[in-house]
């Protein structure tokens, strides 16, 4: 049975009996604070975001885990590195953990997107999860790559705890799928910056935590 990685505050060997995934959203960025759509584009962490990831890293010192993966975006990597700074784990990068590709909307506020691309915006809001944004991707395509990663974790990291540092859209589609909620249904849960969501495998994926932010309190 695999053991957890190094924990700076506890040298005891600890064991996992179930495969578990922590989904962690990145810290707040400047574009987040300006309500701009990011997608595959990047913007720097805001001053608030830098405080958030430090609080997350400190809190995670007491949480043993085996592996940590991050999206290749700067905001996700910086968030993940705030964890590995204390844990000593090697950070693994996976582009599939990226946010939904928002194409022509990236860098724009909702109002700007509506004004500059009215027809694309209308379809974005009404055409459903299979609609592919110009120069971007569909929500269904985002879910497909999310499920691909989760399936691999179940095979490659059985009975381990794995951290995935990712994005709000990635978390949203995976949680909806796990809870049996249509991708086209409104999102009725919060996905705050550095929020933690947990999935546990018990013959199927079960949700054990939704958006925990105790490290910010």
Q: Could you please describe the fold and organization of this structure?
A:
With 217 residues, the chain is an alpha/beta fold. The protein has seven helices and six strands. A six-stranded mixed β-sheet has the order 3-2-4-1-5-6, sandwiched between helices. Strand 2 (67-70), helix 3 (74-87) and strand 3 form a beta-alpha-beta unit. Helix 2 (47-60) runs parallel beside helix 3, helix 4 (110-116) crosses helix 5 (118-126) and helix 6 (139-156) crosses helix 7. Residues 1-15 have low confidence and may be disordered.
Features:
7 helices, disordered N terminus, 217 residues, alpha/beta
Within the largest sheet, what's the order of strands?
3-2-4-1-5-6
Shape from CA axes? globular
Low-confidence stretches: 1-15
N- to C-terminal separation? 35 Å
Q: Supply Rg.
A: 17 Å
- The total of helices stands at 7
Main sheet record: 6 strands, mixed
The number of strands is 6
Which structural class fits the helix and strand makeup?
Answer: alpha/beta
Give the DSSP E fraction (strand runs of 2 or more residues).
15-25%
Average per-residue pLDDT, rounded, comes to: 93
SSE series: EHHEHEHHHEHEE
Question: What is the helix fraction of residues, given as a range?
Answer: 25-40%
What's this model, at a glance?
The chain has helices at 30-33, 47-60, 74-87, 110-116, 118-126, 139-156, 168-179, and strands spanning 20-25, 67-70, 91-93, 161-166, 196-201, 205-212.
Detail the topology: elements first, then pairings.
Elements: E1 20-25, H1 30-33, H2 47-60, E2 67-70, H3 74-87, E3 91-93, H4 110-116, H5 118-126, H6 139-156, E4 161-166, H7 168-179, E5 196-201, E6 205-212
Parallel strand pairs: 1-4, 2-3, 2-4
Antiparallel strand pairs: 1-5, 5-6
Helix pairs in contact: 2-3, 4-5, 6-7
